[in-house]
Write a structure and sequence with these properties.
By secondary structure, this protein is of the alpha+beta class. It contains 4 helices and 5 strands, in the order H-E-E-H-E-H-E-E-H. Pfam families: dCMP_cyt_deam_1.
């Protein structure tokens, strides 16, 4: 399977994209930004690895608690050489909201790639699988 990688940011304006870059660079380990009022989250590490929470889920949970359920883009950054990608659990968690969400994946130098969740999680199980409409 081939994953299509994009290098544009057509889902958001230049101003919004610059704000995304600014916010993701503030994170000390990993940060996510949802382009619906720029809600942020960080990794919550725990000595018991299974009890930790990834930045993606932290931000989405925060957004939902504030009444948000529709997201245009998610930006994820980490202090790594290659752009960071969401873990499997986070991919499934994001899928609950839409399979068409654009993900901006940044590395330590603010270089990024853009992919769509449906490319990272093909043939996915989501609310529609249970007859629940989303979007």
């Amino acid at each position: 399977m081939t994953i299509q990688v994009y290098h544009d940011h057509s889902e958001v304006s230049d101003e919004e994209f610059n704000k995304l870059k600014e916010l993701v660079n503030e994170g000390t380990f990993s940060r996510i930004v949802l382009a619906c009022d720029f809600i942020t989250g960080v990794n919550v590490e725990n000595a018991s690895y299974g009890a930790g929470v990834c930045a993606e889920r932290a931000a989405l949970t925060r957004a939902v608690s504030q009444g948000q359920r529709k997201f245009r883009v998610i930006a994820i950054a980490a202090d790594t050489e290659k752009p960071i990608v969401p873990c499997g659990i986070c991919r499934q968690f994001i899928r609950e909201f839409s399979e068409n969400i654009a993900l901006f994946l940044f590395n330590q130098d603010s270089e990024y790639i853009k992919v769509y969740l449906k490319d990272l999680l093909p043939l996915s199980f989501g609310p529609e699988s249970l007859g629940i409409e989303v979007e």
